[in-house]
Amino acid sequence: MSIDSVVKNPVPLMVEELWKSQSDSLRLSLLCGQEGFHRVIGVADINRPGLTLAGFFEFFRGERIQVFGMGESAFLSTLSSAQRVEILDQILASPDLPCVMLTHGREPVPEMVTQCERFKVPLLQSQWETSRLIGEMTAYLEERLAPCTSVHGTLVNVYGMGVLIFGGSGIGKSECALELLKRGHMLVADDRVEVRHKPGGILVGSGNALVQHHMEVRGLGIIDVWKIFGVGAVLRRSLIELVVFMEMWDQKKEYDRMGLEEKSTALLGVPVTEIRLPIHPGRNLAALIEVAALNQRLKQQGIYSARELNERLIQKMAGHSAGL
């Protein structure tokens, strides 16, 4: 089953946004090429054009940000001016190339400035060493470019596990979350949850920045969880490791009583363990979700209580039959 709601492709990331949002944290300076600020950064991977500078273009990834570290800068300095122009022309002519960055605060060779201006490619300089710049920038790009979707639900963090609660309007998702807050757990988002798919099949959920740590409770209105329960009751984001569907109890429906089958639902193509909780007067849903989170943690460690009990029962019955 899939619960993907409105799957959104991230808004295109242009070099201008990278410059405005990360110039301080990445210690960036603009050397030239501002006319190319409209160029789009489409992938989170970074490229160091090592072999490319020697003329080997077979596997050149021109759609990536090009980072010139100490090695690339030193190699360029060994080439003649004509050789630099020739090789830089081939690199910068790539239509999808977003920008070029220099690390360690290195000054560019004159031909690099001239050719970047010619091709309208932004040339940026960072004071950071190459490995640190690539690491920090990759983390930013993976976050910014991650596929995302917006779903209607409530995300809470229970015993360190992100639990995404779904259910029809008015079924009691927010009330259940409130009870979990009183038990010391944390709210991530209520009503609308932004889900991002990180590399490695990791799902991360967060709330809208404008209404973060606020909840709508029928009869009470909007409440500020941070101010009522304290800063320790809210969490900016959380992994999503368990999905709980709340639904009204249907006497005609057969509900799982053993837990032998592992059911999952898909979010952005990533399978997540699914549990369905029927709503019935007298059921303590907050306690059930707490136990579900702890049980899911055991399963992640390879401990399946229902299966172990079932195997013991089978062995017991097999031994009893053999004795007959």
**Main beta sheet strand tally, sense and closure:** 9 strands, mixed
Ranges where pLDDT stays below 50 over 5 or more residues in a row are none
Q: Please give the domain count.
A: 2
Q: What gap, in angstroms, lies between the N and C termini?
A: 45 Å
Percentage of residues in DSSP E strands: 25-35%
CATH class of the largest domain reads Alpha Beta
Please give the number of β-strands: 18
CATH fold name of the largest domain: Rossmann fold
The helix/strand order is: EEHEEEEHHEHEHEEHEEEEHEEEEHH
Secondary structure class reads alpha/beta
Instruction: Provide the gyration radius in Å.
Output: 27 Å
CATH architectural designation of the largest domain: 3-Layer(aba) Sandwich
Q: Count up the helices.
A: 9
Shape: elongated
Helix content: 25-40%
- What is the residue-averaged pLDDT? 89
Instruction: State the CATH superfamily name of the largest domain.
Output: P-loop containing nucleotide triphosphate hydrolases
Written account of the structure:
This protein is α/β, with parallel strands linked by helices and 324 residues long. It has two domains: 8-144, HprK N-terminal domain-like (Udp-n-acetylmuramoylalanyl-d-glutamate--2,6- Diaminopimelate Ligase, Chain: A, domain 1); 147-308, Rossmann fold (3-Layer(aba) Sandwich), CATH 3.40.50. The protein is built from nine helices and 18 strands. It has helices at 15-22, 70-78, 81-92, 110-119, 130-145, 173-182, 225-229, 285-300, 305-323; strands at 6-8, 13-14, 28-32, 40-41, 46-47, 65-68, 100-102, 123-126, 148-158, 161-167, 186-198, 202-206, 214-217, 221-224, 237-239, 242-248, 264-267, 270-279. Strands 1, 9, 10, 11, 12, 15, 16, 17 and 18 form a nine-stranded mixed sheet that branches. Strands 3-8-7-6-5 form a five-stranded mixed sheet. Helix 3 packs parallel to helix 4. It is elongated, with a radius of gyration of 27 Å. The two termini are 45 Å apart. The mean pLDDT is 89.
